[in-house]
């Protein structure tokens, strides 16, 4: 199988790339070459937004699979349709499980759950991109597959405030400072390690029954937000000092005091329960089982951050936001 990953060195795509190489996939990355290449991956250096660079890098290539890990809007998708029409047997768009209906009408999400998120521009852009691809499949036979990850981690902290690419929340935990959890912390959430995600994802690559279909890929482990923060603190060797604040208060305080908006992050995503029925992907990839519990996977993520000081980013704006939330509502 000859595959092209546009991007390929991010939080999810890095483990997927590493396992793809282990499985003997002839894998190419198309990116700007700013990150250390993954051993065994062939590199095509170009900026996806620059047509002349793209033309030179892709000249003479056809693909079994093209995956765009960094397509976020209809402009990106429309460009890819023109670029890879007739040149790939499958095009995979990385969408997002945040596209599913908010607020949810059921805590159990399937691929037939409506796509509607009035709170988050990111999700609406992904939904619009899916619609462009579905139209291209129906009218032009463009061989697309849609994949919707949900809060998948490897080199990010999958928490609500002070995490993701930041080390801020962990720094606060280690200093004995409070961290903020939305609501009462008891709503159920799903986190998935990227190596588990990779098992299912590689199974749908170049699979003829995946063409024209959409799938989410998650673990089956349901955790409360209190558990997620507690497991992170355990990995850091400290006790989490959790302060619970209603989502609406967090959103209002951010909006009224010049902090980045939290409406999409909360009302558009993490304030709701999110449990996934993975029957569809398991039918396509029967041996898919997520086996990395968050309590173990997060230890690896913490070690990844702490292995290089430049990864331990403490965002002072986030720090101030959390401290002010605690002072006003804690």
TrEMBL record:
Alphabetical list of InterPro entries matching this protein:
Epimerase_deHydtase (IPR001509), Lipid_A_modif_metabolic_enz (IPR050177), NAD(P)-bd_dom_sf (IPR036291)
Gene3D superfamilies linked to this entry: NAD(P)-binding Rossmann-like Domain
Which domain of life, per UniProt?
Bacteria
Task: Indicate the segments forming the NAD-dependent epimerase/dehydratase domain, all copies.
Answer: 4-216
> What Pfam families does its record include?
Epimerase (PF01370)
Q: Which residues form the signal peptide?
A: none
Matching CDD domains, A to Z? SDR_a1
**Name by which UniProt lists this protein:** NAD-dependent dehydratase
What organism is recorded for this protein?
Jiulongibacter sediminis
């Amino acid at each position: 199988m000859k595959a092209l990953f546009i991007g390929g060195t991010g939080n999810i795509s890095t483990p997927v790339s590493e396992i793809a190489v282990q499985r003997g996939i002839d894998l190419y990355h198309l990116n700007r070459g700013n990150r250390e290449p993954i051993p065994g991956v062939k590199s095509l250096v170009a900026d996806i937004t620059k047509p002349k660079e793209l033309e030179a890098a892709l000249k003479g290539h056809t693909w079994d699979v093209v995956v765009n890990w960094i397509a976020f809007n209809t402009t990106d998708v429309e460009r890819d349709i023109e670029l890879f029409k007739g040149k790939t047997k499958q095009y995979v768009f990385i969408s997002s499980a945040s596209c599913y209906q908010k607020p949810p009408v059921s805590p159990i999400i399937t691929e037939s759950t409506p796509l509607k998120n009035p709170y988050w521009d990111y999700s609406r852009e992904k939904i619009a991109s899916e619609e462009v691809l579905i139209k291209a499949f129906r009218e032009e036979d463009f061989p697309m597959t849609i994949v919707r990850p949900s809060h998948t981690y490897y080199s990010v902290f999958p928490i609500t405030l002070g995490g993701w690419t930041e080390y801020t929340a962990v720094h606060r935990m280690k200093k004995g400072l409070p961290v903020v959890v939305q609501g009462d912390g008891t709503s159920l959430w799903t986190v998935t390690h990227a190596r588990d995600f990779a098992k299912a994802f590689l199974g749908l690559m170049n699979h003829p029954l995946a063409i024209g279909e959409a799938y989410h890929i998650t673990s089956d482990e349901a955790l409360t937000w209190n558990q997620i923060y507690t497991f992170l603190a355990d990995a850091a060797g400290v006790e989490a000092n959790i302060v619970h604040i209603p989502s609406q208060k967090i959103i209002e305080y951010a909006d009224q005091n010049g902090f980045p908006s939290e409406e999409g992050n909360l009302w558009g995503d993490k304030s709701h329960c999110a449990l996934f029925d993975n029957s569809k992907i398991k039918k396509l990839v029967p041996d898919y089982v997520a086996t990395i519990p968050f309590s173990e996977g997060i230890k690896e993520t913490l070690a990844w951050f702490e292995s290089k000081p430049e990864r331990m980013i403490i965002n002072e704006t986030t720090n101030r936001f959390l401290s002010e939330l605690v002072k006003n509502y804690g």
